[in-house]
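Subject: sequence -> structure tokens, single chain

Hey, anyone have a minute? Need the predicted structure for the following. Not urgent.
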Amino acid sequence: MDAHEVMASESAQTLARALASLVSSEEASALLLDLCTPREIEDLSQRLEVARLLDAGEPYLSVQQKTGASSTTVSRVSKCLNGSVGGYRSVLDHLRP
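Reply:
Had a minute. Here:
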């Protein structure tokens, strides 16, 4: 099953609605702590930081060194950052001051 098929499921859509309903970083933190393991939170955080650095124009090697992410992770995040779905791009736009 690919990612789009997973997201089409009723449970994944419920998760998406739950995320969209959060109104504060405190609520988001509480959900992440309940939903994810510490390692999963670290992995998700690292990917978002990779996306932020790539979006700022940092070269792949610099991003790897700053985040500790593997070349595979940096490449995958770059592909998503520049892909048609737009999740990283949307979040980064929301996070900009």
